[in-house]
Amino acid sequence: MGEDRQTEMDKKKAEVRARLEAQATSRKGKSGFMTPERKKKLRLLLRKNAAEELKKEQERKAAERRRVIDQRCGTAKSLEGLSEDQIRAICKQYHGRIAEIENDKYDMEKEVEFKDYRINELNMAVNDLRGKFIKPTLKKVSKYENKFAKLQKKAAEFNFRNQLKVVQKKEFTMDNGEPGDKRRDWAADEGKHKKGATKEEMAAAA
């Protein structure tokens, strides 16, 4: 009984192993299409195709430019075997054509300037409509009354007169008629001076 069970388990393991090997081989066969060598060739082909397309586009633009130049300027006229009057007439035609082209050039330049100005104005209007230049939100400010009350309180705290020390000295004080007053009586001195002057005048007159 035990041998039959062991044999059955070995058989199942062999089947599972065979199934896994088959799946692994099938995966290898499927993933082998885009090899690194094929990827490299594909990149080279894409680059070559892009370079050819770019070259064709450049040639097409050059041909279009030459066609427009020939159409606007015309082909050069042959001057061989022409008389002086005929050459002068051709020069006048060239001069008139150049003047006409310069006028067209000036008109086109002014038109381009005007269009650039209009584009700039429209861009500014679009920016304003989108709100691109939004004003920044203002910070919340406290009431002025509370602010001034705080300032007054600080000013009272830093009052210099309250912080100064009181010094009691009599050097710069003025006494009012106290005994021992040593102030000079200027009125008495002036009277003495006048009396001395009258005595000198009388002696000089005698």
Automatic annotation (TrEMBL):
Region (Disordered) residue ranges read 1-38, 171-206
State any GO CC term.
Answer: troponin complex
**Compositional bias annotation for Basic and acidic residues:** 1-20
UniProt entry keywords in alphabetical sequence: Coiled coil
Q: What GO biological process terms are annotated to this protein in UniProt?
A: muscle contraction
The protein's matches in InterPro entries, at most eight in alphabetical order, are given as:
Troponin, Troponin_I, Troponin_sf
Q: Which residues form a coiled coil?
A: 41-71
* PANTHER family per UniProt: TROPONIN I
Similarity field: Belongs to the troponin I family.
Q: What is this protein called?
A: Troponin I
